[in-house]
Amino acid sequence: MASGGESGEQLTRAEHEHLQAELAELEGPKRQAVVEAIAVARGHGDLSENFEYHAAKNEQGLLERRITILRHRLQHARVIDEEEVAASGVVTVGSKVALERDDGERMEVEISSVGGVSPDSPVGQALLGRAEGDEIEVAAPRGTWRARVVSVGRAS
Predict the structure, then answer these.
(1) How would you classify the pairing of strands 78-79 and 10-11?
(2) Is residue 146 predicted with pLDDT exceeding 60?
(3) Among residues 120, 126, 88, 89, which one has the least CA distance to residue 107?
(4) Which pLDDT does position 28 carry in this prediction?
(5) Which residues, including other chains, have CB under 8 Å from residue 150's CB and lie 6 or more apart?
(6) Residues in CB range of 85: below 8 A, 6 or more apart
């Protein structure tokens, strides 16, 4: 977990590499494709009524926004030491957690900023820093529910 004044997003090494690969794809081939689409659309004449041109410019704006977001996330991210946190036995980013709800339902979640349960979500916030056997209470949009942490492991 972040300590002191650190506010950067916590990522596993694999999550960090995934975001770097996405950024490389967007800054390379995707950006080039949008530039080419704009050039082709420009060649079709009057830009004021050229749907292809406006669509390509809109796509370019969305692409550049995504690039800005990814750059910011990567610049401020902190790659966690997965061996160290696994040894601690507490839930962190990259943990796979088995839960048993009060209603008897069992569920397994992975805490991840990339493709899992976000550490900023109600479930993620309730789990971070918890250990096996701890009781949690999740204040979810559909209502509050309680569960017990059955196990804490590392996502593969």
Answers:
(1) parallel
(2) yes
(3) 126
(4) 95
(5) 98, 99, 100, 106, 132
(6) 92, 94, 95
| Side chain identity, residue 29 | P
Q: Coil, strand, or helix at residue 9? A: coil
Report CA Rg, the chain.
21
**DSSP strand pairing (106-110 vs 95-101):** antiparallel
Q: What are residue 90's DSSP bridge partners?
A: 131
Q: What is the pTM of this model?
A: 0.64
Q: Which amino acid is at 30?
A: K
* 86, 154 Cβ separation under 8 angstroms: yes
Q: Virtual CA dihedral for 32, 37, 39, 41, nearest 10 degrees?
A: -170
Among all chains, which residue has been given the structure tokens 């590392």? Answer: 154
The pLDDT tens digits of the residues spanning 48-91 come to: 788 899 999 999 999 999 999 999 989 998 887 777 766 777 88
Residues in the chain: 156
Query: Alpha carbon of 13 to those of 78, 105, 111, 127, 151: distances in Å?
Result: 9, 32, 14, 21, 22
Residue 113 to residue 94: CA distance in whole angstroms: 9
Residue 111: closest CA among 122, 97, 98: 97
